[in-house]
Amino acid sequence: MNRRILLIVAALGCLLQAPAQAQSTAPGLAASPSGVVIVELVNLQCPRCRAVNDYVPQIERAARAAGADLRVAPLAWDGQSAWADRVYYAARDLFPGTENLVREVLFDGIQREGMRFEDLSQVLAYLERREVPKQLVARFPNFKMSEVAAYAGTDAPLLSEMKAGRLADLSMAQEVPVFVWVKNGEVVDSVSPATAADPLEMVQLVLKKLNKPATK
């Protein structure tokens, strides 16, 4: 799926002038031990992103073993609703760890069931139907969907998406998913469909880079 102009650039375009920060896309998560964060930029309507998502736990383990952290950051293209992204960022920022299930279910809703998620209530209703809050409370007792909903309605998730958009610009990638290595606010490496178009090939290349000794 080709990268297009972000839906929210017009409203928050001033943020494009700010430098990208390693932790900027995940305020609810602790800093990376090595200072290196790998951000996977995805679009929830992208089939390739959905295929790569199946390997996120494996990539996350490899990143952790390499002293880095993995963040998954969705982006909405022009003409797409950003509400699913906003709920994802809200879950991740408020209750780190819960976002993985939220992302998986939202991928399914959009790509397998054709959900458009044109407003917040549609996203919340779908997550309720899939019993996501119930599953998350069982694993994260402090999880509250009401808090996620309130946070999703603020500007904070939009700011997270804009910062992810800035990383997409810095990576120069034209398609997603793209994995961006960020250190000290700078993009130091990346993997995109331009170098590995097949999802499994992309995953293998990312894992290969993670298994190499750090040189930067």
Number of domains: 1
Total helical segments: 10
Strand order of the largest sheet: 2-1-3-4
Summarize the biggest pleated sheet: 4 strands, mixed
Q: What is the mean pLDDT? A: 88
Please mark out the parts with pLDDT under 50 across 5 or more consecutive residues, or reply none.
Answer: 1-25
Q: What is the approximate shape? A: globular
Q: Tell me the Rg in angstroms.
A: 16 Å
Give the proportion of residues in helices. 40-55%
Cα-to-Cα separation, first versus last residue: 30 Å
The CATH architecture is: 3-Layer(aba) Sandwich
Please, could you describe this protein's structure?
This protein has 216 residues and is α+β, with helices and mostly antiparallel strands. The protein has helices at 9-12, 47-53, 56-65, 83-94, 99-111, 120-129, 132-139, 145-152, 156-171, 199-211, and strands at 36-42, 69-74, 178-183, 186-191. Strands 2-1-3-4 form a 4-stranded mixed sheet. A hairpin with a 2-residue loop joins strand 3 and strand 4. Helix 4 (83-94) runs antiparallel to helix 5 (99-111). The two termini are 30 Å apart.
